[in-house]
From TrEMBL:
GO molecular function: aminoacyl-tRNA deacylase activity; lyase activity
Descriptive protein name: Cys-tRNA(Pro)/Cys-tRNA(Cys) deacylase
Residue span, YbaK/aminoacyl-tRNA synthetase-associated domain: 39-150
KW Protein biosynthesis (keyword) present: yes
Keywords for the protein's UniProt record, in alphabetical order: Lyase, Protein biosynthesis
Presence of the UniProt keyword Protein biosynthesis in the record: yes
A Pfam entry, by short name: tRNA_edit
Protein family per UniProt: Belongs to the prolyl-tRNA editing family. YbaK/EbsC subfamily.
Alphabetized InterPro entries for the sequence: Prolyl-tRNA_editing_YbaK/EbsC (IPR004369), YbaK/aa-tRNA-synt-asso_dom_sf (IPR036754), YbaK/aa-tRNA-synth-assoc-dom (IPR007214)
């Protein structure tokens, strides 16, 4: 069976699982200050709907945290939600190696090694949320319930600051 041009591992998961989603390309330098706000602006969406995917180490094990770009990852809350005591952001090389994606394009979907995932509870109140589709310059919108199901995520308050 012939397939369309291969997408990212994240889009392959969405298509394989027949999850309703929309891809949103954009152009923002990954080194730009206030990157999340600029991406939201480029896409014309409220920044509260745009989520960043961060890889952290909780008690020595990698864990994914997904939080709105309007705030930051609360490492203590992430550790607690993941059943651990201490958390720190993973180093960039470890995050890229584990996920199979590059910084600025890490998606919670289709990671090379499936990691425990915690999604901030603000996602639960949205009809659509936006996350990286697996490469810089490409976001995907989908229902939060689909992202939670596909990643086997825990939903917990893991953000600081923002709304």
């Amino acid at each position: 069976m012939a397939k369309k041009a291969a997408g990212t591992p994240a889009t392959v998961v969405l298509n394989t699982e027949r999850v309703a989603h929309t891809l949103h390309p954009y152009e923002v330098s990954p080194d730009a200050p206030n990157y999340g706000a600029l991406v939201a602006e480029a896409l014309g969406v409220a920044p509260e709907r745009l989520f960043k995917t961060l890889v952290a180490e909780v008690d020595g094990a990698l864990v994914v945290g997904v939080v709105p770009v309007t705030g930051d990852l609360d490492l203590k809350a992430l550790a607690s939600a993941a059943g651990g005591k201490r958390a720190a952001l993973a180093d960039r090389a470890a995050a890229e190696r584990s996920s199979g994606y590059v910084r600025g394009g890490i998606s919670p979907l289709g990671q090379r090694k499936r990691l425990p995932t915690v999604i901030d509870d603000t996602a639960a109140g949205l009809d659509l949320m936006y996350v990286s589709a697996g490469r810089r310059g490409l976001q995907v919108s989908l229902a939060p319930a689909d992202l939670i199901r596909l990643t086997g995520a825990i939903v917990a308050p893991i953000r600081t600051g923002g709304s």
